[in-house]
Design brief:
CATH topology: Cyclic Phosphodiesterase, Chain: A
Number of strands: 10
Strand content: 25-35%
Structural class: alpha+beta
Bound molecules: adenosine-5'-triphosphate, magnesium ion
Number of helices: 3
Order of helices and strands: EHEEHEEEHEEEE
Distance between the termini: 26 Å
Number of domains: 1
Strand order of the largest sheet: 3-1-9-10
Helix content: 25-40%
Length: about 170
């Protein structure tokens, strides 16, 4: 099964991110991420066998992560897949430490492949016209996190569907 580790926004922040997705969608088109799917990917694992996934879920349930605050104040894009995202510098270093520590554990569990770089972002749109991202409204949101989730992604023609498999200690 296709798995990844992510932070999931609390409900209030999810709504605000959804409102930004609507604004961006009106401007840039493309495929808007449903509110329920908004997330920050910390580690993409790709295909994992069911037995290994169960081990991973058990590990996640016992995990306690360092809580942090990530300030979201910036629009950004990835040109080739037409991704429009939001992110921010403040709190990014702590996310990098979290991501780095996770990959050290994942490597010792023999899972996945540590990416060359980590660029924390929350995807709002895919296959959008990223050239239209000028003069977007200012963003100032705060994401307080203390838990991560193990999520299964099932790909279908409408895009990915996510299912939570495990949550870390809160
Ligand atoms: P879709 O592929 O239908 O557009 P999706 O990208 O949300 O949807 P997945 O491809 O299952 O669904 O990806 C789950 C999460 O992992 C997303 O945040 C995605 O950006 C990230 N991801 C996917 N593939 C990789 C990869 N090769 N390296 C790093 N992150 C990835
Ligand atoms: Mg994808």
């Amino acid at each position: 099964m296709r798995l990844f580790l992510a932070l999931i926004p609390p409900p209030g922040l999810r709504k605000r991110l959804g409102a930004l997705a609507d604004i961006a969608h009106a401007r840039c088109g493309g495929r808007r991420m449903p509110d329920a799917s908004l997330h920050l990917t910390l580690a993409f694992l790709g295909e994992v066998e069911e037995a290994r996934a169960a081990e991973l879920a058990a590990w996640v349930r016992g995990l306690a992560i360092a809580p942090g605050v990530w300030r979201l104040d910036r629009w950004g894009s990835f040109r080739r897949p037409g991704i429009v995202w939001v992110g921010g510098d403040e709190g990014e270093a702590a996310l990098g430490r979290l991501q780095g520590g996770l990959w050290s554990s994942l490597e010792s569990l023999g899972l996945g492949e540590r990416p060359a770089r980590f660029m924390p972002h929350v995807t709002l749109l895919r296959r959008a016209a990223v050239d239209d991202l000028e003069n977007m409204p200012a963003i100032d949101l705060s994401w307080s996190y203390n838990q991560l989730e193990l999520i299964q992604s099932t790909l279908d023609e409408r895009g990915a569907r996510y299912r939570r498999l495990a949550v870390s200690q809160g």
